[in-house]
Amino acid sequence: MAKYIGKRLLQAVVILFGVSIIVFALVNFMPGDPYSGMYSPDIPPEQIEAKLQELGAYDPLPLQYIKWLGRTLRGDLGYSIWYKAPVVTIIMGRLGNTALLACAAILVSTLLGITVGIYSARHKKGIVDNVSSVLAFAALSIPSFFFGMILIKIFGVDLKVLPISGMVTVGNKSITGMAYVVDVLRHLILPTVVLGLMNSATMLRYTRSSMLDIQDMDYIRTARAKGMPERIVIYKHALKNALSQIITVLSLQIPGLLSGSLLTETVFLWPGVGRLNFEAVNHRDYPLIMGIVLILASFTLIANLIADVCYAAIDPRVLQSDK
Amino acid sequence: MSKEKEQVYSPFRAGVKKFFKNPFSVTGLVVLVVLVLFAVIGPMVTGYDQETMDMMNMLKAPTAQHLLGTDDLGRDILTRLACGGRVSISVGIFATMFKLVIGVLLGSIAGLYGGVVDSVIMRITDIIMCFPFFVISLSIAAITGPSFKNVIFIIGILGWPSVCRIVRSKVLQLKNMEYVEAAQALGLSQMGIIFRHILPNAMGPIIVFTTLSVANSVLLEASLSFLGLGIARPQSSWGTMLSAAQNTQILRDNWWMWVPAGLMVLLTVLSINFLGDGLAEVLDPKSKGKEGV
Amino acid sequence: MENEKFFEIKDLVVKFGPPKRRNAVLKGINLSVPKGKVLGLVGESGCGKSVTMLSAMGLLPKRNCEISGSIRFDGQELLNMPVKELQKIRGKRIAMVFQEPMTSLNPVFTIGQQLAEVLEQHEGLKGEANKKKVLELLNMVAIPDPASVYDYYPFKLSGGMRQRVMIAMALACDPELVIADEPTTALDVTTQAQIIDLFQDLQHKLNTSIVFISHDLGVIGEISDEIAVLYAGYVMEHCDVTTLFKNPCHPYTFGLMASRQGRSMYNKERLYNIPGMVPSAENMPKGCPFAPRCPKAGERCRQEVPELREIAPGHTVRCWEVSEHV
Fold first, then answer.
1. What is the reported pTM?
2. What average pLDDT does range C76-102 have in this prediction?
3. Which of A219, A240, A317 sits opposite C105 (nearest CB)?
């Protein structure tokens, strides 16, 4: 197992390297002076020249890259032009909100997708199966922002039962404790519905297809012949074999949640990284944009790595075939 | 034991029969054809031009004269919907073609030659697939600016890795078949082998990918245009029509300005998905539900 | 009758297929297994041997499947028994060993886990006591180094080894009846012999009743006390093993014997094989299903399905020509 992880880590490093090169290239392609965003705006003008020397502005390109890479690895991603603060600080500040939304969405999509997927597979071509198939297709075909706007119109504007934007009710800066939590939760509902329902469609399809294959396998028949109760046959024997598929989906959903939630966050004005990205684009805040790209790409890489390790833990055959 | 009952069908005819038995794929096909017809000949039939402004009739709800009402500049929405459809659907098609050209070529090369070439190409796909789509596409769009060509470029350049992998995996599978060995023994060049022997047999998954990619590209174009980074004025697409709803007043009071565009995207993508699913059943049964793995 | 009929199948009819095109795979099976003895079920592929025993365990698919008749086990009716009750019997009182050892074990659980599960479910064994019993079982089926194999995943074991594990799993809770569905068919000849020896050994030690299914008369002959010959969904002949080999009555059995012996009973030069093929479920001939291939077939045979009649104590045959002329 250790060898497997080591191999994957090495591949990840290579990919990260490639990602950094692309980001560096983009940084240099951006209109304007790439170095203007790399130092704090507070530096007095006399020291700027020295700073530029230090940053590598006058060095040949490869050296510029190395210096930039070094700074990046130390957590220095430059300064946001709009916010006039370090990029890292701004991103970290908003990351928690996106994470909250992502977790809620994953919770909903996994619970819904897996349970309905298992049920559909067991009762193939039944009513639940047919209806959920059509709904799943619809969920995959609808633009997330359109779905969001429809919900906003119905629940927020016409019926006025749920808040339609932001994470907390504006003007309520003083509420704390439980009241604060409830307020956030109320704001969380609509965006979670959008993200959760859309992602549950994929989860449902993969679970269903996986379980369909598995439930006809000989070892499932053996489990029944042993006298195991049906729920153990399905949720232990069958599901564990389906887990690797399910983990694939989850690992595919994480980058999707980080990126697709950009649309949802924008529509619902949720103060997360996605919306930050959109605002940065509108403000032409290039250092911030690049910082976000780099961080999110790294997250995706890490998510995939974790997924790979999980496969090996669940299905022992993976380690075998990997040699 | 009578065998007269069973007629022997060629695989093609058997596939066509199977496809038409599936109610979803047939519905998808029909709806798609209707939508494409609407986009292509709609503007000529409605009697309005998409740009004609009518200041007397701004923001009017649907009436017999304007079946889907008018927008804030008095333009007929139905016509704009059809014209927008032309743009959205063509982005879908061109972006897919872009992905296919690069992806099929690189995938075949990677699969056939193996070794270092394969590793390099695979690492490149890994790297591209690492970037969450909207994050990187916004960044690129910020640099290049919105336009019809740029949208196609962005969707294409970020999307070719999927088809590359599909083709590569199919090539790997087919590489070991005897007819490839035979072709090599006959002295056929590698490229020749790719085009004449391997690709025709890989058509199944490629066709399925094509349909799903068009659907996905339409969806992505709508999203990018909604954010203002896709199609630029004076052109309009369904996405740009949807961006009108960012104005709360329009969202609340003038549903006809944005809801039809959204429904169009939904219907188009949905019907293509049904179609693609039906095709997958016939052409590439193993891929169903496993796309992307 | 000294041996109680503790397992008896009466008039079992099983049909498969969508409602409009339902075909009977089993058309009326009548069998019994004497306690503590081995019943061999023999017949060509498709004659319904597996389906018979799968219906006893309630393991046939629910959709498009119609079962009627009676299967009684120790005074209880198994057909239509509620699943919860059936689960108490499966694995504990009746156990099954399947044909394909390569796919019958769950690939993502260890051998130890899969055996431990049965013991915990039916006997309530946990922890150390459970592990001890599992190792005992592995020993009993002659698996070398049980302590290591306990932690192996199935892919590490050969077909023969996996089949031994399946047998261990079947015997774990000391069942009264073991159904072995072609347990040696997927194995090579040497391993086959080993597995058969294992079965015989265990049967003598534990005095379990066994239903042994196979298409191989040689294997069946070695291990069975009684044999039932199946053809096209019917029991054609049922008697003890010695009688079957010395004095086969049914023309089909006769044909099977002849093909086994490697030379024709009629023609010493050529290998005998029964001409024709087993009819498919959709194309059953009227009358006796064997009639088209039977050298002794008469007019009545082609019109009416023969009844299963006892022609001697403990010997039943389904054949007009035989039962009419006794």
1. 0.80
2. 90
3. A219
